[in-house]
Known about the structure:
The chain is α/β, with parallel strands linked by helices. It has a single domain (3-181), classed as Rossmann fold. 36% of the residues lie in helices and 11% in strands. The chain has 7 helices and 5 strands; from the N terminus they run βαβαβαβααβαα. It has helices spanning 12-23, 41-53, 97-112, 134-147, 149-152, 168-177, 202-214; strands spanning 3-7, 27-34, 57-62, 116-118, 158-160. Strands 3-2-1-4-5 form a 5-stranded parallel β-sheet, with helices on both faces. The longest helix has 16 residues, at 97-112. It is globular, with a radius of gyration of 17 Å. The chain starts with a strand and ends in an 11-residue tail after the last helix.
Amino acid sequence: MSRAVVLLSGGLDSTTTLAVAKRDGHTLYAMSFAYGQRHALEVDAARAIAKAAGAADHVVVSIDLRVFGGSALTSDIPVPKGGTSAGTIPVTYVPARNTIFLSYALAWAEVLEAADIYIGVNALDYSGYPDCRPEFISAFENLAAKATRAGVEGSSTRIRAPLIDLTKAEIIKLGMSLGVDYSKTTSCYDPSPEGLPCGQCDSCALRLEGFRIAGVRDPLRYVHR
């Protein structure tokens, strides 16, 4: 059975992506990051999700992106509530985050001799982050072919983004067809001290709207629903 590295944040999209990789017949190697994010409880969610999925291994990489700041998720900038301006990249964007995460995943994939890396980016119902677009995924795959021993020797590493052209509702329906338990996931950028999702940040709004359109009730309990 082929191996795949799956970037797993503990959120709705990455958990669905983990289920897709399992459906595709891969042995799962999950990778999560404790990067100084204010919603660090997602790491605990990722641990539970990886275990439930039967991952062969789950690595939590500790890095501290707070040393750079520049994002509401890694500094004292308030998380926007009630929507963001259309056509602008919101302050919840973490500079170069997916580039950093994929670089770590690429290194592990080389060690594992895994030909596939799965990432749950989405270019439809998302917050406008530049590192969630198809152009970025294609560019990183090209980089992987040139920057690694495996690539030079002809063993290309494929960057799989199975959700990239799906709406949030379509992602939820896909996940439910694969048996994903969304009660284990967390998507909120600014959870309460008790760990409840706020229901008002951009991530919560996208998630709730996705469940509404899918005709399914979100199993999470929110501070504001």
